[in-house]
Design brief:
- The strands form 2 sheets. This protein has a 3-stranded antiparallel sheet with strand order 1-3-2. Strands 4-5 form a two-stranded antiparallel sheet.
- The radius of gyration is 20 Å and the shape is elongated.
- It is 61% helix and 8% strand.
- β2 and β3 form a beta hairpin.
- The protein has 168 residues and is mainly alpha-helical.
- α6 packs parallel to α9.
């Protein structure tokens, strides 16, 4: 781990050398805080990727479901499909898809409806919740329960309970 940190620090220093003219405009006393924020900004996409789990991009989701980009975006707007905006594409958590039947899992739509109906539809929060071990599911993740097709009704009950707790 130490070697990886050292490599990042070296890369950061090299980038700063190339930005000396910009660095001169930084108000004195803000160097540490700016560097700290830069590290968080640089690693935030990796942290979110870890939190939301495996995902596919728009072109792959189009292939899986055999629908157009517009149809996918309509489902995202209607909050019947979870889409996480990226820089140049929308990412879709894999747990939503039945890859064998080339469709969005109906149970995934029910889970999303549970959050939507309680006014708690935040794609990042839902995706992170789906990938967090849950005591009510025997420490399994909701995504794993959904993908395995076991205890799906219990999963939907837990989703409703979670959405209600977030709303209060």
């Amino acid at each position: 781990m130490r070697e990886r940190i050292d490599q990042m620090v070296a890369g950061f220093k090299d980038a700063l050398e190339g930005l000396k003219d910009v660095l001169e405009d930084l108000p004195a006393g803000q160097e540490y805080d700016t560097g700290y924020e830069a590290a968080h900004a640089a690693l935030a996409p990796i942290a979110w990727s870890k939190a939301v789990g495996d995902r596919i991009d728009t072109p792959e989701a189009m292939k899986v479901t055999n629908v157009s980009r517009q149809a996918l975006q309509k489902q995202v707007r209607n909050e019947t499909l979870l889409g996480i905006p990226g820089k140049t594409t929308t990412y879709f958590p894999k747990w939503q898809f039945d890859f064998h039947q080339s469709r969005v899992r109906p149970e995934a739509k029910r889970i999303l409806r549970a959050f939507k109906s309680r006014g708690q539809f935040d794609p990042h929060m839902i995706a992170a919740w789906m990938n967090t071990p849950n005591a009510d599911l025997g420490q399994d993740t909701p995504a794993h329960v959904l993908e395995n097709g076991e205890e799906v009704e219990r999963l939907i009950e837990v989703a409703v309970e979670t959405a209600e707790s977030w709303a209060s």
